[in-house]
Amino acid sequence: MTFSGDTAAGRLAIIAGGGFLPSYVAEAARAAGENPVIVALKDESDRRWEGYDHAVIGIGDFAALEGLLNRYGIGRVVMSGSVRRRPEWREVRPTLRTLMKMPATIRTLLSGGDDRVLQMVIRLIEGNGRRVVGAHEIAPDLLAAVGPLGTAIPGEEDRRDISRAAEAAEMLGRLDVGQGAVAIGGRIVALEGLEGTDEMLERVADLRAAGRISPRRRGALVKLCKPQQDIRADLPAIGVSTVLNARKAGLAGVAVEAGRSLVLDRAAVIKAADEAGLFVCGIDRGLPAWGLE
C-alpha cells in the first residue's frame, strides 16, 4: 500500500503509546511519502518525537484529541503502542458528542476488557468521518508470515507445545483477557494477563528456578490475535525482548499468528533467536496443525 503526502483523505495521525511500534509506524509512513502527526499519550509514550509535528495529550482527554485532529486536518488515525493503565474517571474530558455517551464510556474505560475499550475508542474517533487504520496497513513489512524466521525449527515436542499453547491463547482471547500462553511438556503453565508478555515470561522463569517446571522440558510461547478483535488496534507483537525473556524462561521458542501479529525489528529478532538457539515462527489457525507440518 502506498500513500503520497497529505492526500485527499487527510493527514495521518499516529496515536503513540509505549514501546517501539509507534516509531516503526512513523518511519514507515514517512518512507511512503506521508507527513504523520504524532499524538503522544502522556505518561505512556517513551519515544522522542523531534522532527515530527507532535503533541502530548492525556489518555482520557477526548476533547484535546478532537481539537488536535481538527487542527491538523487529520483524516486517518493509527493506534499503536502499549498502554499500561486506564484513565481515572476524573481524567476523562469528553467532547460534546462523547458527553452524550458519558455513562457508557466511563463504564467501558473502567471495567471493560482491552478489546471493548479499543472498539469504543475506534467508534469515537470515526464518529466524525475519520478512518482508523491498522499499524500493519502503514507498515506491512512488520507482519509475521507462516513458517520459521530464523534457522531453528520447532521439533515434534515443540509443535505439540505450540498447539497446546495456541488452544489456550485462543480461549483466553475469547474472554478478552490476553493474547499469550506458555505450554511446557503439553501443560499450560502461564496465561498472559494485565502484566503483559515480558512479565509473564518472568513468572515462567521464576517457576523454573523454583523447581516447579522440569529442567528437561523446554516449551513454547504462543501469541494470537483475539478471535473477536478489531485488527486495526493492538495486534500481538514480539521483539528482541520477547526472545531474550523466552530464553531466560528456558523455552524452546516463540510462535505468533501469521498475518495478524507484528515482528518488531525483524533482523534483530532473528539474530537474537539464532544466537540463543530458539525458534521464532508464524502459525495459521486456518491451516492443519497450525501450518507447522
From TrEMBL:
Domain (LpxI N-terminal) ranges: 11-142
One Pfam family, short name: LpxI_N
Domain LpxI C-terminal positions: 147-281
InterPro entries from the UniProt entry: LpxI (IPR053174), LpxI_C (IPR010415), LpxI_C_sf (IPR043167), LpxI_N (IPR041255)
Gene3D superfamilies cross-referenced by the UniProt entry: 3.40.140.80, 3.40.50.20
Entry protein name: LpxI family protein
Organism encoding this protein: Rhizobium johnstonii (strain DSM 114642 / LMG 32736 / 3841) (Rhizobium leguminosarum bv. viciae)
